[in-house]
Amino acid sequence: MDQKSFEALYDRWAEALYRFALGLAGHEDIAKDIVQETFIKVAKNQDFFKKAREEQSYLFKTVRNALLDRSRKDSSWKKRGERWGNDMGLIAPVENPDKHEFATWLERALAELPEEQRSVAILHLWEGMTFAEIGKVCKISGNTAASRYRYALDKMRDQLRPLYEEIKS
Amino acid sequence: MKIEHPDDPLPEHIKEIERRSLPDDFRQSLMNELFHETSKTVVSGPWWVPPQWLGFGVAACWGLIFSLQLMTPKDQAALALQKLDLNAVPSFSLQQQELFAALDINYR
After folding, report:
1. What is the number of other CB atoms lying within 10 angstroms of the CB of residue A150?
2. Which residue segments constitute the domains of chain A, with CATH numbers given?
3. Kindly report the CA angle at A81 between A78 and A83, in degrees rounded to 5?
4. Residue A19 CB-density burial (10 A; 0-12 exposed, 13-18 middle, 19+ buried)
5. What is the value of ipTM here, to two decimals?
6. Does residue A3 carry a pLDDT above 60?
7. Closest residue in chain A to residue B21, using alpha carbons only
């Protein structure tokens, strides 16, 4: 792959992949490592553009698989990432105190979700992916992705209950 | 497939929350690693030209073989054996004559 095509690919996807990785890993360095590994893998694959017709699902799937591999190998990281109240570093600094509080609670609520629900929630809410597209990333059907999203939203609503009542009114 | 309740403000609130970005230097370091640093360190010729280290390795091996050959002391007994006429050894000569006779070959 030539540098120009690679840079264009990077500019299209790097931020989204990093945020997805950060949302799953809850750790900045791990997220950066995974994104770097993914792009190096793509750069070494001469046939990437021929084989990967759907680059979006290919890239997100690669990131997710790399994270799952790493969590299987390093159980201490998994526990650290999923611990309640852990600062995942997912949310950008917020000046507005109300928003800041909501962001903090949201981060904790996300950290409480099991990986399969968190993946779906992040991809649908922030990346705007359809459930069919998410299904390709997570190797599940669109319907399963939709139900996981619903479970994730219900759990987050419970976690954010005190704030949810405020934003609802 | 409608999942979100139209009155539920939660998804919209979540979408508004801004997430962290990649550090500024990340892109540059990745590009350097992939396209610049490797091209500086790996200077390779056409595929049929062996790498330089292989040439040095082969030359060093041959040098070692020659130096061992020169340094090995010559065995006097081995040198004497090389010069020896086997026909002059009675037992060998006898065996040879018997062999030729058995094969019915005119020898000398």
Report:
1. 15
2. 3-168 (1.20.140)
3. 105
4. buried
5. 0.80
6. yes
7. A15
Task: Supply the mean pLDDT for chain A.
Answer: 85
Chain A: nearest CA to B47, how far in angstroms?
18
The residue ranking higher by pLDDT, B67 or B5, is B67
Q: Using CA atoms, how far apart are residues A36 and A108, in angstroms rounded to an integer? A: 26
Return the structure tokens found at B78.
Answer: 């081995």
For residue range A55-64, what is the model confidence (pLDDT) as tens digits?
A: 899 999 999 9
Q: In chain A, which residue's Cα lies nearest the Cα of B4?
A: A150
Find the residue in B nearest to A151 (Cα). Answer: B3
Closest-CA distance, A26 to chain B, in angstroms, reads 12
Q: Cβ of B20 and A36 within 8 Å?
A: no
- Residue A167 neighbours by CB distance under 10 Å: 13
